[in-house]
Design a protein that fits this description.
Layout lengths: L7 E4 L1 H5 L9 H13 L4 E6 L12 H7 L7 E5 L3 H12 L6 E7 L2 H8 L3 H15 L4 E7 L3 E2 L3 E2 L2 H13 L4 E6 L6 H14 L4 E6 L6 H10 L4 E4 L23 H10 L8 H15 L7 H4 L6
Parallel strand pairs: 1-2, 1-10, 2-3, 3-4, 4-5, 5-8, 8-9, 9-10
Antiparallel strand pairs: 6-7
Helix pairs in contact: 2-3, 2-11, 4-6, 7-8, 8-9, 10-11
Length: 309
């Protein structure tokens, strides 16, 4: 791949999307889905998580999935690493012949969410992240994820300055790809534009990624606001799947990610080049529904053709 599209989508169905599912999807089905996703033209794809199987059984097969998915020129496959042991697993998978190109580390912008989601304090988690970043070294492209960047279900609104502080801490550790998470889907376009402007002005060397949830039906609008504010990287999931792990007891019903098919269709109608084959993308969305055995949240796969402005 040589031509760089206007925006880069990271397809999160096989990690963030599946972490919410109680039934474990077989390795063969995950591999087939990942190959189908790659055929759509994605430059970044979430492939798995190295979370401990005790906590997220869905990804007990992380090494097997990585070994079975063939590398793609110009495509970065990303795995989530919650602790140093996970980074060592990623390194071992690479040493065995097939590891991820990217790994991601997670912090929460609030103390309450950190305690609930990660079972430790923010400072303990930052020490954990610093250890992981040092351990990873130059073996991978590193991605830092900041959860509850707008509002926390336990602590309320998050000051934008705290998100900036977390982004600065990531950069100080050599992590310059930073995902901004609207974990409960409460952001609005004005808040998105303001936060993106603050972050980009303060850290021009960083690449910021919009990772928005669609809990209140505003995820696509927030992505457009992020685009208008200068962001060019978006995390999305087929069918609007995903959100927090199924064992985490918070949220207000639907917590899924922005739907890939819908956002890509909108961007195409706006004249924004996504680098994605929309026919193949909609077919992948239909396959995601078949795989999970239910109707998902995509509107675009119902219209049968690309929307036009």
């Amino acid at each position: 791949m040589t031509d760089v599209p206007d925006v880069i989508f990271s397809e999160c169905f096989c990690r963030d999307g599946l972490q919410h599912e109680s039934a474990v999807v077989p390795v063969e089905a995950k591999v087939a889905m990942l190959n189908r996703i790659a055929d759509c033209g994605f430059r970044r794809i979430e492939i798995t998580s190295f979370a401990h199987p005790k906590y997220i059984p869905q990804f007990a097969d992380a090494e097997a999935v990585l070994a079975a998915v063939r590398p793609r020129p110009g495509v970065l496959f990303k795995a989530t690493c919650p602790n140093p042991a996970a980074v060592r697993r990623a390194q071992a998978a690479r040493a065995a012949g097939r590891g991820p190109e990217e790994i991601s580390f997670l912090v929460s912008a609030s103390e309450g969410h950190t305690q609930k989601n990660l079972r430790r304090s923010r400072e303990e988690q930052w020490a954990n992240v610093a250890e992981m970043a040092a351990l990873a070294g130059r073996d991978f492209t590193l991605v830092g994820s900041i959860s509850v960047a707008f509002d926390c279900p336990f602590d309320g609104p998050i000051p934008p300055e705290r998100v900036l502080e977390d982004a600065q801490r990531f950069v100080s550790l050599g992590v310059t790809r930073i995902s901004i998470g609207d974990t409960i889907g409460s952001a609005t376009p004005p808040r998105v534009r303001a936060l993106v402007a603050l972050l980009r002005d303060a850290l021009p060397e960083a690449t910021f990624i919009a990772h928005f949830h669609d809990s209140r039906g505003t995820g696509v609008a927030n992505c457009v606001a992020a685009l208008e504010a200068g962001l060019r990287h978006f995390d999305t999931a087929l069918g609007g799947t995903g959100g927090h792990p199924s064992g985490i007891a918070y949220g207000e019903g639907f917590t899924g990610n922005v739907c890939t098919e819908d956002l890509a269709t909108l961007f195409a109608a706006m004249g924004v080049d996504t680098g994605l084959d929309l026919d193949r993308l909609r077919a992948a969305g239909r396959e995601a529904e078949r795989l999970l055995g239910r109707t998902l949240y995509s509107r675009a796969i119902r219209i049968g053709e690309t929307a036009h402005a």
